Structure formats: structure tokens, C-alpha cells
Amino acid sequence: MFARVSHERFPREHHDAGMRNVVDVLLPALRQAPGYRGCYVLADGKPGAILLIALWATEEAADTASAQRDVIAAFVNLAALGLRIESRKIYEVVAWDEIKTGVEAVNQPDDLAGTSGSHEAT
User: Fold this and answer.
1) Contact 46, 33 (CB under 8 A)
2) Fold assignment, 2-94
3) What is the mean pLDDT of each run of 10 residues along the chain (122 residues)?
4) 3-state secondary structure at position 11
5) DSSP-derived 3-state class of residue 80
């Protein structure tokens, strides 16, 4: 799995409209892109600053998602609100931790399964 991490910024006066556009337009567009696995949108408490972490099945899917027609249209709408992408980089997800139904789990891609100290969620 791969994560495309983007640091993005809106002008303060367009923060609310920008966030609505992210949730109502960009996320549904990403869902339609091949290889999409999920997305986290994080805010740092300052209006206008967000960190977007989109998860993808492959590095190629992460790299080519922005070429999808609906994704392009979503970013055009965001650009009209003054969105500025400050940085964007693709990372391989080598491990993650989550709690499901009260059971702590460390998750890793299949090629790292069996590494000492790891177990999968049930």
C-alpha cells in the first residue's frame, strides 16, 4: 500500500468552502479512481491548512490518480478557491497500527508479514 501525502493551504476566507469541496467533491472523485483505499484529511487548527493522506493499492495508482477526470475537476474547483499545494509526496506504507473492536493490532503489508513482533487485526 502507498500513501500520497499532500500539504495544502486555502486562504482563510475560503477555508469552509474549501473543506466542503474536499468532502463533497474531491473525496467522491478519489473513491472512483482505480486502486483507492481511503483518505485522511487532517487540520492543524489554523483555518486553511490541511494535510491530506490518500491511501492507494500501488505506487502507480497513487501517482496517476490526479490524472483522473473527476479528480482534475475537483482540483480545478479547489484552485478557484485559492488552494495551494505546498508539497506532495508518495510514501510506501510499511506498517500501521489500529484498534478494532478493542483489540490492538499492528498491520503490515503482506511482504512484511511474519516479521517478529507483528500480528494482524481480526
Assistant:
1) no
2) Alpha-Beta Plaits (3.30.70)
3) 93 87 92 94 84 95 90 90 90 88 54 42 38
4) coil
5) helix
